[in-house]
């Protein structure tokens, strides 16, 4: 069962101060999860999580993760600027981008970020753009084909636009070495939102073997292996969660079996988790403002898909709790909608819920990652506020809601 990290009384108290809709984040949950991740990989002295900024690009959240030892994984100019604004720079930034504009490489270089090259042609492009090849450099690997764990196809790397082929990796390492690179990283992201403890260990074994081969072929020093993102969370109420300790242990076993015998026991493990770090620790809080009885039963919220795009975009399930009715029978079936002029603006379709009354507070679960951050302004809708529920139970407004002035700010007349 999924239960909110706030009580109905707490939600009412917050709503008395800030109008719905808003995104609410759970500091205690974020910190505990980050600590567990670090514990799970504490066997690896160089371990570092680079939080995927795109998941939740909110300074208060980034600073909190930084306090827990995380660096930042940035993919764009403003994500780099955001990290810089939070005082997170140098090797605490991983710049993993694709189809990269030159000014982004320039800023990444200026901030001292570790650059992860998406493509073979980026070697030349980077050198021309910043004038040299950094001593520490990483390359993104795409093995192609399909990626399976015990015969279950997880994803289709062969169709993905990211990364270099296996022969390109060898060639890239050779050329980068000639151009002065000294410490190399290997990065790969083969499946998204995996809810199995086998994803990282399976990926790690592939990358560890590749690292051993690349070292033999090119003689480079492999300093780190970046398992990137992809550890998922159980969006469905009865889905079992990943066990980060089992995942850390699985990666450790592959490390002992493959890297240590090859004399590569100094390789650091990096991760770039986004969803796993934040998704469960965010709620989109909304109010039921309309009910409609036509061919179906509808509940209209004051939030819409611009606040949370995943259901409209991917048909993603997000659990819903009607606050104050947590223990009531789910004996009504609703489509829970927003107000966009788009029929896919539905947070839930045919969802069994307790009877909803106008004014009920609605918590939409697992919106801490790719929630606010995927927001947009369609229909002239404005982005909501973000609020942090602190460990001591108080709340802090960490981003104000947009106003019509913000919406009109880019007009030239
Ligand atoms: C999106 C992304 C991540 C994070 O993915 P999650 O599925 O949220 O863990 C990490 N690295 C890169 C390069 C990404 O694009």
Task: Report the sheet-strand fraction.
Answer: 15-25%
Q: What does the overall shape look like?
A: globular
Q: Please count the helical segments.
A: 12
Radius of gyration, CA atoms, in whole angstroms:
23 Å
Count the E strands.
Answer: 19
Task: Report the helical percentage.
Answer: 25-40%
Mean pLDDT: 97
Largest sheet: 9 strands, mixed
Taking pLDDT < 50 over at least 5 consecutive residues as the criterion, the unreliable ranges are none
- Class by alpha and beta content: alpha/beta
- Which kinds of small molecule does this entry bind, naming each only once? pyridoxal-5'-phosphate
User: How far from one another are the termini?
Assistant: 52 Å
Note down, in words, how this protein is organized.
It is a single chain. The chain is globular. The protein has 413 residues and is of the alpha/beta class. It has twelve helices and 19 strands. Helix 3 links the parallel strand 2 (48-52) and strand 3 (71-74). Helix content is 30%, strand content 23%. The structure holds pyridoxal-5'-phosphate. Pyridoxal-5'-phosphate binds at residues 52, 54-55, 73, 75, 96, 189, 192-193, 228-230, 272-276, 369. Residues 52, 54-55, 73, 75, 96, 189, 192-193, 228-230, 272-276, 369 line the site of pyridoxal-5'-phosphate (PLP).
């Amino acid at each position: 069962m999924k239960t909110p990290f706030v009580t109905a009384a707490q939600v009412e108290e917050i709503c008395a101060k800030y109008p719905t809709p808003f995104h609410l984040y759970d500091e205690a949950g974020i910190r505990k999860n980050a600590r567990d991740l670090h514990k799970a990989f504490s066997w690896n002295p160089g371990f570092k999580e680079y939080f995927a900024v795109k998941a939740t690009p909110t300074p208060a959240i980034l600073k909190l993760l930084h306090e827990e030892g995380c660096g930042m994984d940035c993919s764009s100019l403003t994500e780099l600027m955001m990290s810089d604004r939070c005082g997170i720079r140098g090797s605490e930034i991983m710049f993993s981008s694709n189809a990269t504009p030159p000014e982004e490489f320039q800023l990444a270089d200026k901030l001292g970020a570790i650059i992860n090259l998406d493509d073979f042609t980026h070697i030349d492009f980077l050198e021309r753009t910043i004038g040299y090849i950094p001593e520490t450099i990483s390359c993104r690997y795409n093995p192609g084909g399909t990626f399976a764990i015990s015969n279950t196809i997880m994803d289709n790397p062969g169709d993905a636009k990211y990364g270099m082929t296996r022969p390109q990796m060898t060639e890239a390492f050779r050329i980068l070495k000639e151009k002065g690179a000294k410490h190399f990283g290997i990065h790969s992201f083969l499946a998204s939102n995996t809810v199995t403890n086998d994803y990282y260990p399976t990926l790690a074994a592939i990358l560890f073997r590749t690292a051993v081969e690349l070292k033999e072929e090119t003689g480079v020093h492999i300093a780190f292996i970046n398992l990137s993102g992809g550890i998922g969370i159980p969006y469905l109420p009865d889905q079992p969660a990943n066990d980060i300790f089992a995942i850390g242990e699985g990666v450790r076993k592959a490390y002992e079996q493959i890297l240590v015998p090859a004399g590569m026991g100094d390789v650091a493990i990096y991760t770039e988790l986004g969803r796993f770090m934040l998704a469960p620790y965010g709620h989109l809080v909304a109010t039921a403002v309309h009910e409609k009885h036509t061919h179906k039963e509808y509940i209209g919220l004051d939030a819409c898909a611009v606040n949370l795009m995943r259901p409209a975009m991917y048909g993603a399930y997000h659990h819903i709790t009607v606050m104050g009715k947590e223990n009531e029978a789910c004996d009504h079936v609703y489509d829970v909608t927003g107000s966009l002029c788009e029929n896919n603006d539905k947070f839930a379709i045919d969802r069994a819920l307790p009877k909803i009354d106008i004014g009920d507070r609605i918590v939409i679960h697992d919106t801490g990652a790719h929630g606010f951050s995927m927001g947009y302004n369609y229909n002239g809708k404005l982005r909501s506020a973000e609020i942090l529920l602190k460990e001591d139970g108080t709340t802090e407004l960490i981003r104000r809601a947009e106003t019509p002035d913000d919406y009109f700010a880019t007009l030239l007349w």
